[in-house]
């Protein structure tokens, strides 16, 4: 996964491109789907499950499901501490300790 700085106008500063994390391990799976919690930790499908990566790019751990590919994910529940994630044929949910960033609610 690559990271970029974001300019004040919301566009990417392409010259700041850098490796954020290597999500390829010995087990099947490639990076796909991504969400961020309120502490800046990144949740992304990767080798062997859903990887949790801290803001510096350090791999904190993996939610192991046995599925080779996770296609997307989102936070939910009343406290935003349930991570829902999918593969091609399944839907999982797991309680986590840090809430995800809530989806913005449109203002009337």
Automatic annotation (TrEMBL):
A divalent metal cation binds at residue 32. The keyword ATP-binding does not apply. It comes from the Eukaryota. Binds 1 divalent metal cation per subunit. Its cofactor is Zn(2+). SUPFAM superfamilies: Calcium-dependent phosphotriesterase. It holds the Pfam family SGL. Keywords: Hydrolase, Metal-binding, Zinc. One of its GO terms (molecular function) is hydrolase activity. Gene3D superfamilies: TolB, C-terminal domain (2.120.10.30). The active site is at 32 (proton donor/acceptor). This is Regucalcin. It comes from Geodia barretti (Barrett's horny sponge). The lineage of its organism: Eukaryota, Metazoa, Porifera, Demospongiae, Heteroscleromorpha.
